[in-house]
Write a structure and sequence with these properties.
By secondary structure, this protein is α/β, with parallel strands linked by helices. The protein has one domain: Hexapeptide repeat proteins (UDP N-Acetylglucosamine Acyltransferase, domain 1). It has five helices and 28 strands. Helix 2 packs parallel to helix 4. The longest helix is centred in the last third of the chain and has 14 residues. The C terminus is likely disordered.
Length: about 280
């Protein structure tokens, strides 16, 4: 039997698995589907046309499937899908799609920490982590196993590649390449080496990621020339993922500004000191 608190308001048309739990004062609207063993904490609001998979946990105060904050929205029926085993912490907001039949999608085993916002038509692939206060503009696409640190703001239509790591307080206005690490200033500082190792990636694969970082962020090549160079060199999954990301359509362009290494900074300082001034 489904465990629903007597104070919860459940529309009769909602489809709730028998093993799901609905907490006190939560509201579940018409057309909602909630999977087995999912727990909806007290005082959550699950709006129409939302699907939540199995073994999810939605914490107090979350609002899932509300209408988009988009002037183009005219009341069309659109959706919001949450994958299995995803955890949505306190006061997270997730909005459904703008266009008729469109959907905001959260993958499996994602973790959305306190106060995050996922705008209309966003896609989060599996195992994405959004740390407290992260904000995603509409149509953002976050690749599998990417980590966005606290209070990151992502512009609409931006893509963040799989395995990327975005630093705290970053303002992301262009696409972030797979397995790259970007700081709060929007500067590429290297590859997500720890993340790659956690995935069991080593040796040649990590070398390819490092090579991509060097060619794209520090060598003076145009993007087409850099892509051609890397295409000849890369054979592994990591390298091919980076090339595929570069080849896909980009509405915002790419974050390719790189921070100089300590050695390069020293070289530039010596060069400046040797240059006569007037």
């Amino acid at each position: 039997m489904t465990h629903i608190h007597p104070s919860a308001i459940i529309d009769p048309s909602a489809e709730i698995a028998p093993s799901a739990i609905i907490g006190a004062f939560s509201v579940v609207e018409a057309g909602v589907r909630i999977g087995p063993d999912t727990i909806i904490a007290p005082m959550c609001h699950i709006l129409s046309h939302t699907t939540i998979g199995a073994q999810c946990r939605v914490h107090t105060g979350a609002v899932i499937g509300d209408v988009p904050q988009d002037r183009a929205y005219t009341g069309a029926v659109s959706g919001c899908d949450i994958g299995d085993c995803t955890v949505i912490r306190e006061h997270v907001t997730i909005h459904r799609g703008t266009a008729p039949g469109s959907t905001t999608r959260i993958g499996k085993q994602c973790l959305l920490m306190v106060g995050c916002h996922v705008g209309h038509n966003c896609t989060l692939e599996d195992d994405v982590t959004l740390v407290n206060g992260t904000l995603l503009g509409g149509h953002a696409h976050i690749g599998a196993r990417a980590i966005l640190s606290g209070h990151v703001a992502v512009h609409q239509f931006v893509r963040i590649g799989e395995g990327a790591l975005v630093g705290v307080l970053a303002r992301i206005t262009q696409d972030v390449l797979p397995y790259f690490t970007v700081t709060g200033s929007g500067t590429n500082v290297g590859i997500n080496r720890i993340g790659l190792r956690r995935l069991g990636v080593a040796g040649r694969e990590i070398d390819e990621a490092q090579r991509a970082f060097r060619v794209l962020c520090h060598e003076s090549h145009s993007l087409p020339v850099a892509r051609e160079m890397l295409t000849v060199e890369f054979v592994g999954h990591v390298g091919m993922s980076i090339l595929a990301f570069l080849a896909a359509d980009s509405r915002r362009g790419f974050h390719l500004r790189g921070r100089l290494s300590r050695r390069k900074v020293a070289e530039h300082s010596e060069s400046d000191a040797a240059t006569p001034t007037t």
